[in-house]
Amino acid sequence: MPGKVRWDEAATFELSRSGYELVVFCGSPDEARLASARVATVHFAICVEMPIIQVCWRYEGSDGWQDASVSWHTARPEGRSDSAKTARRSIAKVALLIVDANTGIVMVKRHLAMPGRANELLIRSLDEQASRNWDEQSYAHAQASLHRRIRSSSEMAKAAQILVRLRDVASV
Asked: Is 2 part of a structural domain of the chain?
């Protein structure tokens, strides 16, 4: 982003033209964390409590889970296109990007594939979410309510409907 010099430490899970994009912004990422992001097995969970879809992930050997929400209604237009939907239905590619929040430099880019059964749950959930009327305030209220009941990423992963491992695929 032109003019942007710092990003908040956070993660986003977005719909993209060719699948999904998991972007993790880390303040001063250490080499051990980057090494895990580059090669460790990625455990991935999906927790759905409509209208909220929460994805969770952790690296094999790490001490905890992270999570992010995904919303059809706030996705970039190219992620909601018919061609993007078709791409997600054929193979669920997940681009994992680790970004230094202090510089905006991409430190890790890894291409992963989501197992079909997890992708089917995510697609069904996104379709249901898309069919609902969008009200930003109601969505924020539902998200806050979910996070009051499920207070950590680890608890969110335990509450998930599905838990899978993402596998490496050749970059496109």
From this structure: no
Written as one string, the DSSP assignment of 31-64 is HHHHHHHHHS-EEEEEEEETTEEEEEEEETT-S-
DSSP state at residue 18: T
- With respect to residue 3, please indicate whether it lies within any of the assigned structural domains: no
Whether residue 113 is contained in a domain is answered as yes
Instruction: Tell me whether residue 4 is in a domain.
Output: no
**Residue 97 has what DSSP assignment?**
E
Residue 54 to residues 5, 79, 156, Cα–Cα distance (Å): 28, 17, 8
Per the CB < 8 A criterion, the answer to whether 69 and 13 are in contact is yes
**Tally of domains in the chain:** 1
Domain that residue 100 falls in: 10-168
- Beta pairing class for 106-114 and 92-100: antiparallel
Model pLDDT for residues 136-151, shown as the tens digit of each residue: 999 999 999 999 999 9
What are 53-85's pLDDT values in tens digits?
999 999 998 879 999 999 999 999 888 888 778
Residue from 124, 152, 130 nearest 71 by CA: 130
The amino acid at residue 46 is I
Band of residue 172 on the pLDDT scale cut at 50, 70, 90: very low
Q: Model's pTM, two decimal places? A: 0.90
Residue 17 pLDDT more than 50?
A: yes
